[in-house]
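Deliverable D2.4 — example input (structure tokens):
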């Protein structure tokens, strides 16, 4: 922006605006009022609002309420914004006035000024296209912003699904690759029954798959649009055919599966659909963070930890300890998951803060949902490409630990009883001798049964070690 200014006027009076800005006086007031974070609106949020403005222009052109020449200019300006041409002119801080009026007006003013330029006019004159009268025709911030939240989240859903489907498939591939590797299971971080390394990785894939299913279910509620509700959901100043036409054009513009909401008052009052969707995103972050924790634990060492797997070395791990390699990608994933969990808490609080006909906390809801989806998608893609795809197993170390697990005595319980098996477990630890060796030495079982009862592979499948029924 240049230092030159132009003067514009709103109901509060005149105000100088940068001469080359496509935004106008109401956006300038927001810049003065909300110098809070320095965070500009996410492009996905801008895009969602501009989709609505484009659809509205097309709708009003079809109904004849808006002159075709003006509608076409608004559509052309919207297409430029959607192509990223005017990103620098969307400037209102994430933390702004309630409902998102400032962001809505930022979009209205940019589109109006650019449309007027395309028609031969000048920025700031708002002739023949006016930001309120024409770009915002039949709309209110109160139905535009909740609709934009839904559109933005649904649009980002495809990226989230691609990233996590790829990560799921990578874990599943490692599950097949590692299926023959026996390792010690651990519960409470203590010795537990054996498990195959491949089973653990296959379960990670299943966890992601269940999360994706849960998110798709929550996303379906977002497909109901309240656009056409206008100021309080009743549709004042809106043509009866407007909601259906908006749904038609938004489906064409976005390629999303959308529905015209049956109860626009309810869709304006409640942020429940958005909060439920964000909650499903949070659960994905919780599970992904747990998986990252597991990877960090299994790679711990290489001499003083578990050392059951190796992660690709992506960068030096220490500025002072030469040769140290850290699980850097998994650590990044944990931090992203923490942020998403915090974002969900913010969305929940904001969704609850609605009053009567409107929830005015929508700007922070919009930002936190879309930001969460972006960083989770990126984190999953990086985890897949720079970590999971290159994981290798330390078979020897896995076998070393599993043979030393005191929990192997569990397989003896059906044959000799819980109390005797517990005594064998305690002696194994106290005397630092393998369960298998102790059983042989003390002739706990007949020699021809020992290998069958203590078959590690069989312990990783459903069944009773040594046969269907135990002894005494």
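Example output (designed residues):
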């Amino acid at each position: 922006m240049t230092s030159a200014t132009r003067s514009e006027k709103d109901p509060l009076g005149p105000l100088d605006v940068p001469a080359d800005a496509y935004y106008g006086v109401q956006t300038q007031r927001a810049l003065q009022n909300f110098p809070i974070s320095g965070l500009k609106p996410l492009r996905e949020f801008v895009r969602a609002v501009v989709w609505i403005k484009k659809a509205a222009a097309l709708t009003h052109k079809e109904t004849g309420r808006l002159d075709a020449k003006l509608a076409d200019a608004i559509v052309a300006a919207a297409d430029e914004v959607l192509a990223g041409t005017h990103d620098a002119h969307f400037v209102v801080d994430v933390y702004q006035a309630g409902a998102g009026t400032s962001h809505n007006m930022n979009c209205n003013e940019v589109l109006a000024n650019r449309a007027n330029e395309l028609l031969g006019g000048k920025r700031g004159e708002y002739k023949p296209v006016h930001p309120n009268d024409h770009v915002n025709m039949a709309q209110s911030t109160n139905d535009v912003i909740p609709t934009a939240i839904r559109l933005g989240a649904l649009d980002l859903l495809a990226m989230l699904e691609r990233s996590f489907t790829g990560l799921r498939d990578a874990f599943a591939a490692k599950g097949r690759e590692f299926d023959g590797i026996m390792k010690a299971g651990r519960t409470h971080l203590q010795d537990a029954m054996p498990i195959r390394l491949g089973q653990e990785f296959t379960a990670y894939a299943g966890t992601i798959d269940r999360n994706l299913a849960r998110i798709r279910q929550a996303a379906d509620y977002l497909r109901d649009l309240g656009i056409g509700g206008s100021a309080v959901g009743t549709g004042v100043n809106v043509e009866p055919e407007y909601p259906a036409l908006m749904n038609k054009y938004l489906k064409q513009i976005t390629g999303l599966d959308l529905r015209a909401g049956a109860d626009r008052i309810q869709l304006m009052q409640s942020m429940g659909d958005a909060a439920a969707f964000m909650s499903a995103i949070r659960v994905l972050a919780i599970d992904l963070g747990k998986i990252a924790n597991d990877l960090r634990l299994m790679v711990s060492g290489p001499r003083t930890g578990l050392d059951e797997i190796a992660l690709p070395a992506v960068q030096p791990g220490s500025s002072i300890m030469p040769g140290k390699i850290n699980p850097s990608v998994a650590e990044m994933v944990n931090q992203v998951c923490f942020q998403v969990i915090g974002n969900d808490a913010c969305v929940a609080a904001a969704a609850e803060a609605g009053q009567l006909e409107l929830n005015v906390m929508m700007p922070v809801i919009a930002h936190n949902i879309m930001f969460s989806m972006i960083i989770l998608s990126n984190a999953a893609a990086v985890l897949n490409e720079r970590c999971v795809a290159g994981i290798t197993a330390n078979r020897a170390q896995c076998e070393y630990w599993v043979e030393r697990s005191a929990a192997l005595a569990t397989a003896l319980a059906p044959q000799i009883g819980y109390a005797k098996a517990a005594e064998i477990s305690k002696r194994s630890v106290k005397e630092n001798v393998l369960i298998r060796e102790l059983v042989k030495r003390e002739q706990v079982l007949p020699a021809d049964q020992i290998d069958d009862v203590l078959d590690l592979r069989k312990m990783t499948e459903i069944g009773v070690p040594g046969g269907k029924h135990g002894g005494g």
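The domain at 404-459 is CATH 1.10.40.30 (Ribonucleotide Reductase Protein R1; domain 1).
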